[in-house]
Structure formats: C-alpha cells, structure tokens
Amino acid sequence: MIYYISIGETDKLRKERGKMNKIELLAPAGSFEKAQIAFLYGADAVYMGTKSLSLRTRVSVDDNELNKTIEYAHKMGKKVYVALNIFAWDEKYDEIIKAAKELNEIKPDGIIASDGGVIEILKQYAPDVDIHISTQANVISYHTANFWYHNGAKRVILGREMSKDQIKELIENKPKDLEVEIFCHGAICFGYSGRCFLSDFLCGRSANLGDCAQSCRWAYNVYVEEKNNPGNLMPVEDDENGTYIFSSKDLCLIKEIPEIIEMGVDSIKIEGRLKTEYYLASVVNAYRNAIDDYMKDPENYDYTKYLKELEKTKTRGLTTFYFNDRNNKDIQEYEGKQYNLEYEFGAKVVGKENKKTILEIKNKLSVGDEMEIIIPGKLETEKFKIEKLWDIETDEEISTINPGRANQKVKIILPIEVKENWIIRRKK
Fold first, then answer.
1. Which residues contact 150 (CB under 8 A, 6 or more apart)?
2. Under a CB-based contact definition with an 8 Å cutoff, are residues 96 and 121 in contact?
3. How many CB atoms lie within 10 A of CB 4?
4. CB 355 within 8 A of CB 413
5. How far apart are CA 345 and CA 362, in angstroms?
6. What is the pLDDT of residue 59?
C-alpha cells in the first residue's frame, strides 16, 4: 500500500507512513559473482542481461549462469530481473522467441523490455513472468504508464528526465498495482532516456542493440572551415576543458532518499553492469544503509555520511540531474575526468587458511599500505595497515605483490573476522 504525504502533516505521521513503504534496492549484476556481491551488501534484487538481447551485450550472461543466479537469489528471498530490452530488427525475433520460452522456464522475477514487438512476444511465450517496461521506452507521463499497464506491464522504469514533481503526479494517477522504478545512481546517457544513435553513426556499434561505444564520453575537437579556403581547418576552443561536449556527470540521489521513499516509489535502481565488484559493494552498501537508517529514524537522516562513502568510488562528478529542478544546468562533465584520487579496489576475500585470510588482489598491495574493509550492513569501515603478506604458494613472507595474472592471490592476517566476497579498498 502506498501513502502520500501532504503539506502540514506531523513528523510523527510522516515517520509512520514512511515505514509503510518498503522500497526495493535494485543493483546491477554483470555476472553471477557480481550478483553475489550485490546481495551480500544489501541489494533486494539485481538485474542482468541475456546473451545478445540486452543493452549491455559486452557483459552478457549465459543461460547456466543466469539460471544459477536465479536459484541463488530465490533461496535468499531475493529477486532477479532479466533485461531483454533491445530495439529489435525483424531478423532478431526467432532468437527473441527462443529466449522468451527459456525465461518462462527458469522463472526470473521480471523481464525488462522496451520494444512493443518484443513485449508482444513476451506476453505470448513468457506468460508466467512479469513485464517491466525499460527506461528505453521513455515512460515520462502517467498516460504512458497507464498505456503499458493495460498492455501487460507490472512495472514501469521511468525516464531519468523526470523531476520529482512529475514523478509524484505519475504515481498519483497510475493504477494502484502498477509498480514504479527510478534510477538513483550511476551514469546518465546523452540520448533521450538512453536511446542514442551517436555510437552507431560514428563506429557502427548500435547502443539500441546493446553495443554502445560510449561515444558521448569521448573528447571532441570542433573546427571551422573558411568558405573561400577549403581544407584550411581552424580549431574552435572555448578553453582547455571544452572538448568533452557530450559527457554528463553521474546521477546521485542519496540526499533525496527521504523524498523518494515518501512519494511512494517502489524500486530505486543503481546503474552499472560494467562496473567493478568494488564499485558495486561500495554503492549498494551506502544506499542500503541510507534507506535502513531513514526508515528507523527519519528525523535524523544525514546524507553526508553516505555521500562520503560514495565519493570513494571511481566516478565522474555527481549531479541530481533534473530530479529537483527541470532547469538544472549543472549536469555536464566538460573535463571528462573520473574522480577518486584517494582510493582503489584493493582485494576480495576468497578463503581462509588457519589464521590467514586469502585475498584475490585487484591492485598492487605492499606492506605499510592503508586499507579499509567494507563490512556488509555497516557504513563504518574497518581500517588497518598491512603488516605482513605471504606468498600463496610458498607461504614465504613478501613485501609487495602485483596483479600479474588473473585471480592473483596472497595471504594476510586481518584485524577482524571476515567472510568470503567481502571487499577491501586500498588508500592510494
């Protein structure tokens, strides 16, 4: 049941009603291992792609891995949504029908789709699985939401162009049992709700078929040609930061969590199936703690402590995009930089050997390095310095180790008891 907060209601009533709406935290999972990390650090659900029919084909998940993830999630009472959200040419439909039949057998909790033709196939060949309308379908009004509801949708994923006032209006006018999902964190596409032909135009890789080259993140130089002197190109330069003309900042709505919960949003989504396990653990853990803390004590919600954690991940500048203001101009990242000067992915816990913990390293580790253990369910990290390292094969002490090969491992003694898949960050 969804409650709405009107102006003038007491803090007590706001608190009671906020607790009634249990919002879902939805995380990206580019693999079974990443799904494990997402669930460990507090995600209620994950979304994954099919082999060649989602918008991130470069992190495709095969049928066995997808099936394993669904079984794993359902044992814990978690959910898995599968993206089948390309805009398909006719020659793709045999593959789409096959995928729909398979998904109806393995029973994910929802299929994310955007193409009307694909949705008709899903209704026919995967009738037992809920349909979620992708942000690619540009749902930005309750009229459109109602259309999709009457055409079989269980959930609509709103376009990131919407403001909070527009989202509220949609929620107030939608069918009661139609769920609403919004993005809360991650990259913002240059195209309208992510639909873009720039990549296809420049290098023959279609974003709408899952093969985006992220052309909007490239550096561009603009030139003018004098009409009477063809071939004489002169650069147009505003300043040294003016070349990343398409690149946007990353979305971050951690401050707006109270409003999002109170307005009745059903699910908030983190973008990033291409991101690392470190990014996933850090961001999911921050939003998990933010949601839980607000639900327990809304009057004392302090977004700054969660923001500090989010800023320890590799990201572009952060923006609320149009959520608070449709006229917001602070959305571009003209320098093209990714920010995180202090921290990087250090290692992942993969096992134990007597008193020693076995780590899979992700960057160079050395004796004396300052580290932080990201603890699932806790915002505060466990800080420590590396005092000793042991070679994984010889058990001899070493002073440093480089990730020279895949799955490179090392032994260490940690200050607290840890579990498999816990993530450790390194201070640079």
1. none
2. yes
3. 12
4. yes
5. 6
6. 54
Cβ burial of 406 (10 Å; 0-12, 13-18, 19+) is exposed
pTM above 0.70, yes or no: yes
Backbone phi, then psi, for 426, in 5-degree steps? -115, 135
Nearest to 254 by CA among 239, 242, 270, 266: 270
Give the C-alpha separation, 170 to 144, whole Å: 9
Residue type, 424: I
**In whole angstroms, what is the distance from residue 52 CA to residue 64 CA?**
15
3-state secondary structure of 19: helix
Identify whether the C-beta of residue 129 lies closer than 8 Å to the C-beta of residue 155: no
Q: Write the pLDDT tens digit of every residue in 114-155.
A: 999 999 999 999 999 999 999 999 999 999 999 999 999 999
Q: Cβ(104)–Cβ(129) under 8 Å?
A: yes
Structure tokens at 199: 């990549």
Q: Which amino acid is residue 408, in one-letter code? A: Q
Instruction: Find out whether 365 and 390 touch, Cβ atoms under 8 Å.
Output: no
CB 370 within 8 A of CB 351: no
